[in-house]
Amino acid sequence: MDVPCGENYKPHETEAIEECDAFVFLLTAASQISEEVKYEFDLAKKLDKRIFPIVWGDFEINEYYMEELRGIEWRIVEDDDLSFLDEIVDWLKKVKR
Predict the structure, then answer these.
(1) pLDDT value at residue 18
(2) Do 54 and 88 touch, CB atoms closer than 8 A?
């Protein structure tokens, strides 16, 4: 998504989520309190996108995301471990149209 400087990004963001095959959700201590991240996550769920949750770092996941992610397998990643990236690529290849 390439949004020109000064342009409202929200329509582009919404369109990107609408058109995606899967939604990689990176949950961190900061992202779980972001209203923007919540909007993106909620839109992906509403559109019934396949969600791949990645929990990055050592923090307590808030009640909202604990409930919303119930029943979805996620990965917990340590700060210096990037080995999960290959796994994400494999996941995405399987859902690509």
Answers:
(1) 95
(2) yes
What pLDDT score does 1 carry? 64
**CA–CA separation, 83 and 48 (whole Å):** 27
As beta bridge partners, residue 75 has 54
Its sign, for the CA torsion 33, 35, 39, 42, is positive
Cα 63 to Cα 40: distance, rounded to the nearest angstrom: 18
pLDDT along the chain (97 residues), means of 10: 79 89 93 96 96 92 96 85 79 73
Question: What whole-number distance in Å separates Cα of residue 90 and Cα of residue 65?
Answer: 24
Residues 96 and 20 sit within 8 Å (Cβ to Cβ): no
CA–CA dist 3, 36 (Å, integer): 16
Strands of 3-81 (E only): list them. 22-27, 50-56, 75-77
